[in-house]
Amino acid sequence: MSMDIDAAARLFAELGNRTRLDVLLLLIKAGPEGLSIGDIQAELDIPLSTLSFHLRGLSGTGLIEQEKQGRSVICRPNFTAMNEAMQFLKRECCVGVAPKARRGQAA
């Protein structure tokens, strides 16, 4: 499924925050196994309420997935969503853009 511009804007807006980017990078380093919320909090040394806020944003755009395992919540990077975001950026690569001055001129 191809990402539309509104979904891409929301996704990239989430990554425009340093804490959310730190969380996502940490989860990418952890790989598909992910990390518990407690492990993320300990690694990044941020308050739980702040972390919960940022995890909601990342989860809402699909950049991370969360799974309850017993008393823990495991967070994992969603590599499919990240790949779709990269494809969104790359699909316009090198298609060419006529300089504005030439767009209105007849050949």
Could you characterize the architecture of this molecule?
The chain has 107 residues and is of the alpha+beta class. It has helices at 5-14, 18-30, 37-44, 48-60, 79-90, 100-103, and strands spanning 35-36, 64-69, 72-77. It has a three-stranded antiparallel beta sheet. α2 (18-30) packs across α4. The longest helix is centred in the first third of the chain and has 13 residues, at 18-30. The radius of gyration is 18 Å and the shape is elongated.
The outline comes out as elongated
Question: How far from one another are the termini?
Answer: 38 Å
The averaged pLDDT comes out at: 91
Instruction: Please outline the major beta sheet.
Output: 3 strands, antiparallel
Question: What percent of residues are in strands?
Answer: 5-15%
Secondary-structure element pattern, one letter each: HHEHHEEHH
Q: Which consecutive residue ranges, at least 5 long each, have pLDDT under 50?
A: none
Number of helices: 6
